[in-house]
Amino acid sequence: SLHLALALGLLAPAAVHGAAPITNAVNEWSKTPDVNGVFTASGGVVTDCTADMDVFPNKAKVSFGNFSVEYKNNYKIVTNKGATPVVKYLLWQRGCPKPADADDRTKYAASFEVPLRSVALTSSTYFGAMEVMGERAALKLINDFNVYSSSPCLHEQVDKGSTALESSALWEAALGFYTVPNATSMVKVANKKLNDLKIEASFVGCNWNTITEKCVSYQSLPGLIQVANTRETTFYAEGEWIEYHAVFFNRELEVMEVTDMARERWLCHSASKYTENPPKVLVLSYFNRSYPDYGTYKGWEIAGCHVCNDKTDAEADISVNPDVPKWKCGRSLGTPYDAKLSPSYKWCELVKAAGGVVVNEQLHSVKAYKDQTESPTLGPWIGYQPGSKSGFTDAQLIAFAKDVDVIILKNGGCYYTDPVTGNLLTGDSCNTWWSDAFAKLTDIKAVKEKRVWDLFRALDPSGGVAWLSQSVVEPDVMLEDMIKAISNDASAATKKHQFAFFRDNFAEGFGNRYYCKDEPKQVGCIPDLAELKAQCTDHSDILPLIQDGCSGAPANLGHSSAAFLSAVVALVGLCW
Question: What's residue 211's pLDDT?
Answer without folding.
Answer: 54
